[in-house]
Amino acid sequence: MASSFIHTPIEYLKGIWTARAAMLKLELRIFTFNDLLKFYPFRYVDRTKFYKVNEVNDTLAYVQLRGKIVGTQMLGEKRTLRFVAKFMDDTGKLELIWFQGAKYFSENIKPDINKEYVVFGKPTEFKGKYNIAHPEIEPVSDENTTLASALQGVYNSTAKLTAKGLDSKGIAKLLRTIIFSNDYKIDECLSAEVLSRYQLMGRQEAVRQIHFPQNTELLKKAEFRLKFEELFFIQLKLLKQKSMRETTTKGFVFSKVGDYFNNFYNNHLPFELTGAQKRVTKEIRIDMGSGKQMNRLLQGDVGSGKTLVAFLNMLIAMDNGFQTCLMAPTEILANQHFQTISELTKNQNITVGLLTGSKKTKHRRMLHEQLQNGEMNILIGTHALLEDEVIFKNLGLVVIDEQHRFGVAQRAKMWAKNTQPPHVLIMSATPIPRTLAMTLYGDLDVSTIDEMPPGRKSIKTIHSFDSHRDRVFGFMKEQIALGRQIYIVYPLINESEKMDFKDLMDGYESIARAFPMPQYQVSIVHGQMKADAKDYEMQRFVKGETHIMVATTVIEVGVNVPNASVMIIESAERFGLSQLHQLRGRVGRGADQSYCILMSSYKLSADGRLRMDTMVRTTDGFEIAEVDLKLRGPGDLSGTTQSGILDLSIADLAKDAQILYAARNMAQEILSDDPSLIKPKNTPIAYHFNSSNRSQTNWSKIS
Ligand code: ADP
Ligand code: MG
Q1: What is the CA(309)–ligand 1 centre distance, in A?
Q2: In 3D, which of 329, 387, 384 has the Cα closest to residue 354?
Q3: How does DSSP classify residue 264?
Q4: Cα of 40 to ligand 2 centre, how many Å?
Q5: What is the residue with the minimal CA distance to atom 19 of ligand 1?
Q6: Alpha helices of 180-215 — where are they, by DSSP H?
Q7: Does residue 596's CB lie within 6 angstroms of at least one atom of ligand 1?
């Protein structure tokens, strides 16, 4: 049968022996022919082009030369031992050098005026002369001078694989054996309809072209096809999970807009809602009234007013006889939400509770009672909300304020807090590019607040060097004289880093010297402080008792001090873009002109400079997230690392947005026409979908 060929265990491949097979499994997780076929080149080189020695320069990534060995010698000893061969063509000479395997090459490569070699490698300049270290070298033959394909794939390899002869070239050889065998056959996994709609290359052809492209154009088509396929099946899976959940899980129907909502909206609304706030509030309300159980992501930049939107929808839940809760990632943030919501609910006969890890047993007992007898309308807290003893009378809506998506197990706990799962609204403070949202949160509905409340002055961002510190201190004094408060943030990326901690303390001391008491008051907050000490310092700043808050990134999430108008970020080059953006979002919350000053050393990497420039240029979180995605790739973006979904083998979410949109639309269209994929025309899709998901745990019920 055709499909069995590619599932042949890798041991059966010609050219493989036990040690090699073991190494492929261990190093690259390659067990079958199919696994190897999916191990795509990461780059291509043109092996039909031959350079002349006098054309060589170090701007060329690789050169291929043709010529003779005219002299050899062993140089150095022990660790500096190296074999050097003088290589010559009709235009000049250069040196080939081997540090590893010097002895082997000295025995096999001899000066011979009658023997021609093909040499391939990266040229480097040393003292005005060129050399190539560890080149590929082999005698001229028909095979290496008349290659059919201009483009040759380059594969990632490891030291251990190379030792077994499986460097890039060795891997290519194995692939050649599979792909040019008479049995080579790969089943199509897309339907004829999809293939013709997007004019996709067939799968078998695409796999061949990706490894051994005949020309650039065919390579592009092969790439497009394989990217489409990869993204299509991810989207199909996400959308199928979503539709399964929707058909198997009923949601509470919030049909009413009642007194809680109307009273607040007409008599207590602190400000006019922005257009975006109105729009998303409505989206959420409609979703909660539809009979489906809502699983929705509420995206919006820092300060865009997500809390108010969540609160309005909590009132709707209450109007329909339900309790609600709001879960925050840190104690400080939970406290702040509690204060905000207590303020919003003043004089409206609404009971709001706070539950965090540090709450005493007595307080808890009272809360538990109020939750169970239904007296408590809104419960705010940290992960403590997940505990089993937290039992609601009738929980209808869960709001989660977080940067990172909660784990499946945690969400399952929330679901279990009522006989029927409550609606779930996840507020994300980290704007993420659309492509990433579609993949990471592809099984959720998304609402986006893309408008800031009016009257905000945009934050002025300045990039300054450490050597200008005096000027920055002067500016700080001016601002304090105007009655403003200031944050100074130090990178304590890893709270246990001794160096980072020392930097923070040194910084604090120099600030304390430059801003002496009693004229100036300085707070400090860091991760090694006890929670209550932290809270005390934080509160002093919130109340305006201190002028300067020296802190680590603990202030990243949460605190809201409208009077703070200056954010100084030390060693800004060490922060990622999304972190810088989050930090900057701590200021610009009041009526005053706000400033963000990025302090860095003169020495900046290219990436570091781009990060600084991006921050100075824009305050748009979505634009910043796009740059971040391009710089770091999706795997490193905050909160996404645990997600296996981003282990893509060929598609690139930073570059392939258009392919992703097309693939998602196609998946959507197919599922709405054939939800269970049982129509004959979709057989290839169903077959592939089922066989690749069979081994994975089915979490589709929970999201
Ligand atoms: P985030 O989306 O970052 O959670 P918040 O909900 O904390 O933003 O809102 C940021 C600030 O903007 C708060 O002080 C809030 O009171 C204020 N705010 C929210 N909506 C509006 C609005 N429509 N007009 C004016 N200010 C608003
Ligand atoms: Mg918020």
Answers
A1: 9
A2: 384
A3: I
A4: 42
A5: 305
A6: 192-197, 203-211
A7: no
Q: Whose CA is nearest to atom 10 of ligand 1?
A: 303
Tokens of 29: 């997780």
- Range list of H helices, 320-385: 331-344, 361-372
CA-based nearest residue to 172, from 186, 158, 147, 152: 152
Q: Which CATH topology does 53-144 take?
A: OB fold (Dihydrolipoamide Acetyltransferase, E2P) (2.40.50)
CA angle 612, 614, 618 (to 5 degrees): 125
Instruction: Give the three-state DSSP class for 432.
Output: coil
How far separated are the first and last CA of the chain, in Å rounded?
38
Portions of the chain given CATH number 3.40.50.300: 259-449, 460-618
| CATH, domain 460-618, list 3.90.1150.200, 3.40.50.300, 3.40.140.80, 3.20.20.70 | 3.40.50.300
Fold (topology level) of 259-449: Rossmann fold (3.40.50)
Q: Which residue of 271, 399, 448, 542 sits with most ligand 1 atoms within 8 Å of its CB, as the best mutation to test the pocket?
A: 271
Q: What is the pLDDT of residues 635-691, one digit of tens each?
A: 554 444 444 556 788 998 888 989 999 999 999 999 999 999 999 999 999 999 988
Q: Mind listing the pLDDT tens digit for each residue in 441-500?
A: 788 888 999 888 887 778 999 999 988 888 999 999 999 999 999 999 988 756 556 777
Q: Ligand 1 centroid to 71 CA: how many Å? A: 76
Within the chain, all domains assigned CATH 2.40.50.140 are found at 53-144
**pTM beyond 0.85:** no
Ligand 1 and 302: CB distance under 6 A: yes
CA 305–ligand 1 middle distance (angstroms): 3
**Distance (Å, rounded) from C-alpha 408 to C-alpha 458?**
38
277 lines ligand 1 (CB under 6 A): yes
Task: Kindly give the distance from the C-alpha atom of residue 453 to the centroid of ligand 1, in angstroms, as a whole number.
Answer: 7
Question: How many beta carbons lie within 10 A of that of residue 537, not counting itself?
Answer: 20
Query: Cβ distance 650 to 40 under 8 Å?
Result: yes
Pocket probe for ligand 1: among 304, 332, 457, the residue whose CB has the most ligand atoms within 8 Å is: 304
Ligand 1: centre distance to CA 594 (Å): 16
The residue whose C-alpha atom lies closest to atom 4 belonging to ligand 1 is 306
With contact defined as beta carbons under 8 Å apart, do 548 and 511 qualify?
yes
Q: Among candidates 536, 514, 510, which has minimal Cα distance to 523?
A: 536
- E-strand ranges in 116-275 read 117-121, 123-126, 129-133, 136-139, 151-154
